[in-house]
Design goal:
The chain is mostly beta strands and 517 residues long. Helix content is 10%, strand content 47%. Keywords: Cell outer membrane, Ion transport, Membrane, Porin, Signal, Transmembrane, Transmembrane beta strand, Transport.
Length: 517
């Protein structure tokens, strides 16, 4: 009897255990719904993180670019191997990129707490550089790059880039985000091209601490302290630091950071469009005249920038058509005009042809630092002004075209010109004459203008898949004239000989396929 009871109990336990195991394998509808619960508080695409009251949204894009007549993506041939316009200049450059962003939001008694992260994973073809001995090296894949050169190595020969990483809470934004100085369209009033001058940039974000006040009816004001390194530093150039090819314009000579940039922005964003006024104060803090403390240093100088932006929506030419336009003026704060992705960001050296007897080729210079100085002298702030804009027309639900343009002027004061061109303006006694000679120089003037004009057409055959073709023309109107004895550059294969000083042009074509998700 005892044995029978034990067998019965064991069988019952086995049955119950088997039933439980089978039940565990079955999908539990209530649990599944709990784990994929939609969060409708913040728009489509948000879901609750399991076991929390935080909502999360994943997004991004995959993009493929092919560019003609450029060594970069996507700024044009205004310096280096691209500006050489010879066998070191790429006929094409290719990039594949995956972008990933993570948006989380949590409702609290103080309002919504938001975090946002955006990163890119890129593979970009690059350039060959000469070594001066009949051999070249492929560069700079696999090396550490400057902040906005996305061509360097790091992951499988490509690059990881962190664009945005910020927290928003109770009106505050803390972390890496687009500058409050920039308009909502940042570098892109209607284009894909990255290199427009004429306004604020940092499309890849800048560290900041910002408070934004909302006044209602679409009116807001932001006050911000933002990191100036390196996106908002155009150069505090020591004109006595380096003789030779670029010694004419000195070498940048920054000291450590002492003050962030201070930004104020007022915006009206309503159904008719948008108006924005921005102001920034920028401290220029240079290191020493020479290699040690004993050589002395120039005093700090604060620069500033002001910008107005206007967007007009739903204009009579068609539904969704838009005009975006802005203008900017800077003094000692050049990056608020010649923004961080604008070509070589104010350091243009472009070579071209010539018909001048005795000259090998031509060259055009366009340098735009924040300030220049010489040993024993003070910083001389550089003044710039500029504008950019675009008109976008929608042909139908699948096609649109935009025409866009930009213009900027760079001006040196009289003292700065005397440092570069000498006291008589002939080049004698100045850094330009010391670097290139004065025998053939007929006009010495570091001022220059840059003009850009472009046309882009986009086709979106299905939602979130867009193909585009973007053609951009750039003209550098430089004010030097005559000839110089250029010392040559092994890296781009340029010989040391006589070059004509001349305005330069370049054209860039971007073909892009992009899938957003």
């Amino acid at each position: 009897m005892q044995l029978s009871k034990s067998v019965i109990l064991a069988s019952a336990a086995s049955f119950i255990g088997l039933a439980g195991a089978q039940a565990a394998d079955l999908p539990l509808k209530a649990k599944a719904v709990e784990y994929v619960k939609v969060c409708s508080l913040y728009g489509p695409g948000f879901y609750y993180i399991p076991g929390s009251d935080t909502c999360i949204k994943l997004g991004g894009y995959l993009r493929v670019d092919v560019l003609a007549n450029t060594n970069s993506d996507n700024t044009g041939n205004t310096s280096g191997a691209g500006g050489a316009n010879n066998r070191f200049t790429n006929g094409y450059t290719w990039r594949s990129r995956q972008d990933l962003n993570i948006d989380t939001r949590t409702a609290t008694e103080y309002g919504v707490v938001r975090t946002f992260f955006d990163a890119t994973f890129s593979w970009t073809t690059d350039s060959y550089a000469g070594q001066g001995n009949g051999a070249t090296v492929y560069s700079p894949i696999g090396t550490t790059q400057a902040p906005n050169n996305a061509n360097g190595g790091g992951v499988a020969g490509g690059t990881v880039g962190v664009y945005y990483a910020f927290i928003q809470f109770a009106g505050f934004t803390m972390g890496k985000a687009v500058s409050q100085f920039s308009t909502p369209w940042a570098n892109y009033p209607g284009n894909n091209y990255d290199g427009l001058v004429g306004g604020g940039g940092t499309i890849t974000g800048v560290n900041q601490f910002t408070y934004t006040a909302q006044f209602g009816n679409g009116v807001s004001m932001a006050l911000s302290a933002q990191d100036q390194t390196a996106y908002y530093q155009a150069g505090v150039n020591n004109l006595g630091a380096a003789p030779g090819a670029l010694g004419a314009f000195g070498l940048s000579n920054y000291a450590g950071t002492v003050a962030p940039d201070l930004v104020a922005m007022l915006r009206v964003d309503q159904a008719w469009g948008l108006f924005q006024a921005s102001f920034a104060a920028h401290n220029n803090h240079a290191a020493y005249y020479g290699g040690t403390e004993t050589t002395g240093h120039p005093d700090d100088k604060w620069g500033w920038a002001g910008q107005l932006g206007l967007s007009i929506k739903n204009i009579p030419t068609g539904p969704g058509d838009t005009i975006n336009i802005q203008g900017v003026y800077t003094n000692g704060a050049t990056r608020y005009n010649i923004q961080d992705l604008a070509g070589s960001a104010g350091s243009n050296t472009v070579f071209g042809g010539t018909n001048l007897p005795g000259a090998y080729q031509s060259v055009g210079f366009g340098m735009a630092p924040d300030s220049v100085f010489v040993a024993g002298g003070q910083q001389q702030l550089i003044t710039t002004w500029g504008m950019r804009g675009a008109y976008t027309h929608n042909w139908d639900a699948y096609w649109n075209t935009a025409i866009y343009g930009a213009y900027a002027g760079v001006r040196y004061n009289g003292t700065a010109k005397s440092y570069i061109c000498g006291p008589t303006g002939s080049g004698v006694g100045g850094s330009f004459g010391a670097a290139f000679g004065t025998a053939g120089l007929t006009s010495c003037n570091p001022d220059y203008n840059i003009a850009q004009l472009g046309l882009i057409t986009r086709w979106t055959p299905v939602k979130n898949l867009t193909f585009s073709a973007d053609l951009t023309y750039t003209h550098i109107d430089q004010k030097f004239a005559g000839t110089i004895a250029y010392p040559g550059s092994a890296g781009i294969g340029k010989p040391g000989t006589v070059y004509e000083l001349k305005d330069q042009n370049t054209v860039l074509l971007l073909l892009r396929a992009q899938r957003n998700w």
